[in-house]
Design goal:
The structure holds two protein chains of two kinds.
Chain A: E1 5-12, E2 21-28, E3 33-37, H1 44-52, E4 59-64, E5 67-71, E6 76-77, E7 85-88, H2 100-110, H3 118-131, H4 147-159, E8 165-169, H5 177-194, E9 197-202, H6 205-211, E10 214-219, E11 222-227, H7 229-234, H8 239-244, E12 249-259, E13 262-266, E14 272-276, E15 286-291, E16 297-298, E17 306-316, E18 320-327, E19 330-337, E20 346-351, E21 358-361
Parallel strand pairs in A: 3-9, 3-10, 7-8, 8-9
Antiparallel strand pairs in A: 1-2, 1-4, 4-5, 5-6, 10-11, 12-13, 12-15, 13-14, 15-21, 16-20, 17-18, 17-20, 18-19
Chain B: H1 17-50, H2 56-59, H3 68-76, H4 78-111, H5 117-123, H6 132-143, H7 149-157, H8 168-192, H9 196-204, H10 209-220, H11 222-238, H12 241-247, H13 255-264, H14 270-296, H15 319-346, H16 367-374, H17 376-409, H18 415-423, H19 430-441, H20 452-476, H21 480-488, H22 493-522, H23 538-548, H24 551-575, H25 580-586
Helix pairs in contact in B: 1-14, 1-18, 1-19, 3-14, 4-5, 4-8, 4-11, 4-13, 6-12, 6-15, 6-24, 8-11, 8-12, 9-10, 11-14, 13-14, 14-19, 15-24, 16-24, 17-18, 17-20, 17-22, 19-20, 20-22, 20-25, 21-22, 22-24, 23-24
The chains are: A alpha+beta, B mainly alpha.
Chain lengths: 369, 587
């Protein structure tokens, strides 16, 4: 049955140099799906492969269902096949020399803890194929399937023996975008139906939000924040998290004062702005204020953080419109939903709700887009 | 290259429209005529020889009494059937052994953390370059039932077991040892190109490493295993040197040795030889065709165009076991034979009172080297070999360039036929090329027979597919636009070839020509039928020494040949890294 995963201070070094995974700790309670999100090279896949046992960690401890499966300090290293896990690979990794049925039946045939008879195997394979919507395809060679169907075979293959933990390594990134969205929603449904504990790795934030009960954002081998999707999106703990999840506007300024989690930032010519901050900023610190284009309100003067700006460019995109707005020497992008573009070039009122302005210490990091 | 392809040219001037119109067909016809002369004419003569019973030496050229009965009689002959059966057993057994060794090696090199993998991978290619006759000679020194060095050592150690390499099992072992790299080349690259997550998925699913190997890894590279084993079988089938050295003393004839025996008869049975050669060629052609089918079929192993981090299995302390297995193989195929040749070449007599006598320095001398160099034929053969090598390299290189360019870079009509004709020799064993050239020229008075040109032309025909393939690869790396840019600049086709293609493809051209030189130097099978005492070459003379029974001279000349080849190969390697695959097919 599905079991909890506990990772403590995981370190993985390849050769010399910077570790690929640098002291990552988190847990996944039984039945929960955790998504590791981050740009390529951030260590998310390496972490996942350490959990699978396909990479051997350099340090830290990994336990699945209370059993330590990896602890280099003590020389503990359980092989992948003894970990009772399932894994879905980015390249599907379905075996091209077998049929759909043979692929899915393979784990049942070769697993050591195999108590079921052969009649049982067929039932289980059929049930699992039905679950992923491939009931009709059992006898087809896998090479005749489309990419999406192959990934369903891979999913069925990893679910058929009801492992304690399911690992998914960017399972949707090889699919085209329409299929990706469909399979993404279905994946969540199937995983929740089976009650599987899941660890899912992706670089796609929309996948992470839909699939994850919690999302962990990683960068340079470190876990920056681990929280439910709503919190990641509304209370990013770090300017990288804010930026990576889509807060593309950055205003540079100086901290004037801070009260609790609220700070007042001086933006120079534009005036002052009130912002939320998770960091212990003090007066005089250089600060960068991140905010999402869709959280800025155009055409209204709110009770706080209200400014008057000028629309310099308008890009109509059908279902939404993007405005470049300038105020007091600062530039922001504003997104307005809806098919009507209501604002014209020229003067405009804008409000930056304090709750959606997040101030972080400015360490001179470049602004990614 | 005097004529050019008009079709591929942008019309720059209208100075000679008529010449333009005729240039392409003339050029294609010229190439087709040359290829027909080199490949088709000898094959046709061989075919006529096989179905007639007139002797070209006695009856003169052009007299045939065609009748199929002769051919059928040959196929029904008991000796032919025995040679055919022996060939199948020796090559089949050798192939099985080669697959086991080759597969184990590719797994060790590609999939494990065995120490010094790079060295193992490189050194395991050495057997590809050992001339088969030299390997045969070395193993007869090591494993002959009475005086073999291995048996002397066993006797000294008091072990009752004796090796006998003058036997079918000896043939199989030597074949298997020396042709394993052919299997390795195919399986190693298939393993390298395989998506490692296919194996990881199996491991995660709960299968053991062993189960994974046999249910996932090997089935996935099955096409490569099959292609490699078919190739090694075909190469073994065409080898003369090994069965001549090891089979003959035990009276085991395979197809190649039997064909040569027929022509050495008095009077020579050229018709029968031709018929058996046709049989050998048909078997080879079918297998080569099957191998091409396997290779062009869908390959399971290569999945995505993504670069994989090679998966390497941590063997722990077992990696020293795999390391010693690899060393043991290298010891058997490289060190032992070399030591045997050196001992035999420098010892006055190859007789040992006991094992300690091996280290008795007084028994060693240069006497065998002096004696082979006292023989004027030795220098003649070396000189002839070099001449033949140079002629082959130059003619073959130029012809291959012309063919490769025409096939790959122009749209002229008839280039498909050129492609086809230049590929045919792939399916013809060297020995059959020899018999075919014999039939083509022996009856023609004042012809090529008896000159070194016939050897060179036979070699060109034999190696043209490999040379064209090697050159085509380097052509493909030169973007077509580089040429087009020169045309736009107002250059003509010939001048474009001269100023753009030749300089850019030079490394490939030089490498192909040196390779051709090396292949010509070590070729035995086709030389056997085409040399005369004036035109003898090294490989043939070595066979003479061996059959003359003086093991010291044979070993000494083997070493001379090996050193010359080693130097040539060093130069080739220095000129082009990694063209081992092109030597591969030539055996």
């Amino acid at each position: 049955m599905s079991a909890a995963l506990l990772i403590e201070d995981l370190v993985k070094k390849f050769g010399t140099g910077k570790p690929a995974v640098d002291g990552v700790s988190f847990d996944v309670p039984a039945g929960e799906i955790v998504v590791l999100l981050g740009p390529s090279g951030c260590g998310k896949t390496t972490s996942l492969r350490c959990v699978a046992g396909l990479e051997h960690p350099t340090g830290g401890r990994i336990s699945i269902g209370g059993r330590v499966v990896s602890e280099p300090e003590r020389g503990t290293l359980v092989s992948p096949r003894e970990r009772d896990i399932g894994m879905v690979f980015q390249s599907y990794a379905v075996w091209p020399h077998m049929t759909v049925h043979q692929n899915v039946a393979y784990p049942l045939k070769y697993r050591r803890k195999n108590t079921s008879g052969s009649g049982d195997i067929n039932t289980k394979v059929r049930e699992t194929l039905e679950l992923v919507g491939l009931g009709e395809y059992a006898q087809r060679p896998v090479t005749s399937l489309s990419g999406g169907q192959m990934q369903r075979v891979a999913l069925a293959r990893s679910l058929v023996y009801r492992p304690q933990l399911l690992l998914l390594d960017e399972p949707l990134s090889n699919l085209d975008s329409k299929l990706r969205i469909r399979l993404r929603d279905e994946l969540r449904r199937i995983l929740k139906m089976t009650g599987m504990t899941g660890l899912y790795v992706t670089h796609d934030q929309s996948e992470a939000v839909v699939l994850g009960d919690r999302i962990g954002v990683m960068k340079d081998g470190k876990l920056l924040q681990m929280a439910p999707p709503g919190e990641i999106y509304n209370r990013p703990a770090d300017s990288f998290v804010a930026n990576f999840t889509g807060a593309s506007n950055v205003l540079l300024g100086k901290v004037l004062e801070r009260k609790g989690e609220q700070a007042i930032i001086d933006l120079g010519a534009a005036g002052r702005i009130q912002a939320w901050t998770p960091q212990p900023l003090v007066a005089g610190d250089k600060a960068r204020v991140a905010l999402r284009a869709e959280n800025i309100r155009l055409g209204e003067h709110g009770p706080a953080n209200s400014f008057t700006g000028r629309v310099t460019e308008r890009r109509y995109q059908g279902m939404q419109t993007i405005y470049d707005v300038e105020f007091g020497g600062q530039k922001v992008e504003v997104l307005e939903l809806g098919t009507a573009a209501r604002h014209n070039d020229g003067e405009v009122a804008l409000t930056l709700p304090p709750d959606t302005c997040w101030a972080y210490r400015d360490e001179g990091q470049p602004t990614a887009d | 290259m005097t004529a050019t392809s008009a079709a591929a040219l942008p019309a720059t001037t209208d100075a000679a429209p008529a010449a333009r119109r005729w240039a392409a067909p003339l050029w294609v016809s010229a190439l087709l005529i040359i290829l027909t002369f080199l490949v088709i004419y000898p094959l046709l003569m061989l075919f006529f020889g096989a179905i007639s019973d007139s002797n070209p030496v006695i009856d003169g050229f052009g007299k045939f009494n065609p009748s199929l009965t002769h051919f059928i009689a040959v196929l029904g002959n008991e000796n032919v059937r025995l040679a055919f059966f022996n060939a199948l057993v020796a090559c089949g057994g050798g192939t099985i052994l080669a697959v086991v060794i080759g597969l184990a090696f590719s797994w060790i090199v590609v999939r494990t953390n065995t120490p010094f993998k790079g060295f193992i991978a490189g050194a395991s290619m050495i057997p590809l370059f050992v001339p088969p006759l030299v390997a045969g000679v070395a193993w007869s020194i090591l494993g002959s039932p009475k005086t073999g060095l291995l048996n002397t050592a066993l006797k000294w150690m008091g072990i009752d077991f004796r090796f006998d390499f003058y036997s079918m099992s000896g043939l199989i072992l030597v074949f298997g040892f020396y042709y394993a790299p052919y299997v390795y080349m195919f399986t190693a690259s298939a393993l390298r190109n395989m998506d490692p997550s296919l194996e990881e998925a199996s491991e995660v699913a709960g299968a053991s490493a062993f189960t994974t190997l046999f249910t996932v890894t090997f089935p996935l590279i099955a096409p490569a295993i099959l292609a490699g084993s078919l190739l090694s079988f075909v190469v073994m089938l065409g080898i003369y040197g090994v069965p001549a050295a090891l089979g003959a003393p035990a009276n085991i004839s395979v197809l190649t040795t039997y064909i040569f025996k027929l022509t050495a008869w008095s009077p020579p049975l050229y018709n029968t030889a031709a018929a058996v050669a046709i049989l050998l060629m048909m078997v080879t052609a079918i297998l080569v065709w099957a191998q091409q089918r396997v290779l062009s079929g869908r390959s399971f192993a290569t999945v995505a165009g993504k670069a994989f981090r090679p998966r390497s299995l941590n063997l722990g302390p077992w990696r020293w076991l795999t390391f010693s297995l690899a060393l043991a193989y290298l010891f058997v195929v490289v060190v032992l034979p070399t030591v045997a040749l050196v001992i035999a070449a420098f010892r006055r007599f190859l007789f040992f009172k006991d094992f300690r006598a091996v280290f008795d320095m007084k028994a060693y001398s240069w006497v065998h080297f002096n004696s082979i160099f006292d023989n004027p034929l030795t220098m003649t053969s070396i000189w002839n070999t070099m001449k033949v090598g140079v002629i082959t390299a130059v003619i073959g290189g130029v012809l291959a360039f012309a063919i490769g360019y025409t096939i790959n870079r122009t749209q002229v009509a008839g280039r498909k036929s050129i492609d086809l004709l230049s590929t045919i020799p792939v399916a013809i064993p060297g020995l059959v090329v020899g018999v075919a050239y014999l039939w083509a020229w022996i009856g023609l008075p004042g012809g090529l027979y008896g000159t070194i040109w016939i050897l060179a032309l036979a070699f060109v025909a034999r190696f043209i597919p490999d040379t064209v393939k090697a050159l085509s690869t380097s052509f493909m790396q030169i973007h077509k636009e580089l040429e087009e840019a020169a045309w736009i600049c107002g250059r003509g086709l010939l001048s474009t070839i001269g100023t753009i293609m030749v300089p850019l493809a030079r490394p490939g051209i030089v490498a192909s020509m040196t390779l051709l030189f090396v292949l010509a130097v070590r070729e035995l099978g086709s030389s056997l039928f085409l040399y005369t005492s004036d035109t003898t070459v090294m490989a043939v003379l070595l066979l003479d020494y061996y059959e003359g029974g003086n093991i010291g001279k044979t070993a000494a000349f083997s070493l001379v040949q090996t050193v010359i080849l080693g130097v040539l190969l060093g130069i080739t390697y220095w000129l082009s890294r990694g063209s081992a695959e092109s030597t591969a097919r030539a055996g």
